[in-house]
Design brief:
The protein is an alpha+beta fold and 89 residues long. Helix content is 37%, strand content 11%. A two-stranded antiparallel ribbon has the order 1-2.
Length: 89
């Protein structure tokens, strides 16, 4: 096998591994509300006042969230989506 073919095969293998592992990584995370510092949220808030990451204005806002490792949100004194929705209403 020539060097060019070897490099192409290696690159294809690495891309396949990266794509195969992405869904597993996503399953190992959960949204945790009330733990994000101002400007460090991961996406839209519950009230719909913004739809992008990094737009939170207040530390620990119950409507703002960050992705955390599954099972760690409660350890950080965070809320699930259902709990956050109940507190906001």
């Amino acid at each position: 096998m020539n060097q060019r073919a070897l490099i192409a095969a290696t690159a294809a293998s690495l891309m396949t591994l990266a794509l195969a592992s992405a869904p597993v990584a996503a399953q190992e995370k959960e949204k945790c509300f009330g733990i994000a510092k101002a400007g460090q949220n991961d996406c839209a808030n519950l009230s719909g006042t913004h739809s992008c990451a990094g737009q939170s204005k207040v530390d620990m806002d119950k409507g703002e969230w960050k992705y955390v490792a599954k099972g760690t949100c409660k350890d950080m004194k965070g809320l699930s989506m259902d709990e956050a929705k109940k507190m906001k209403s």
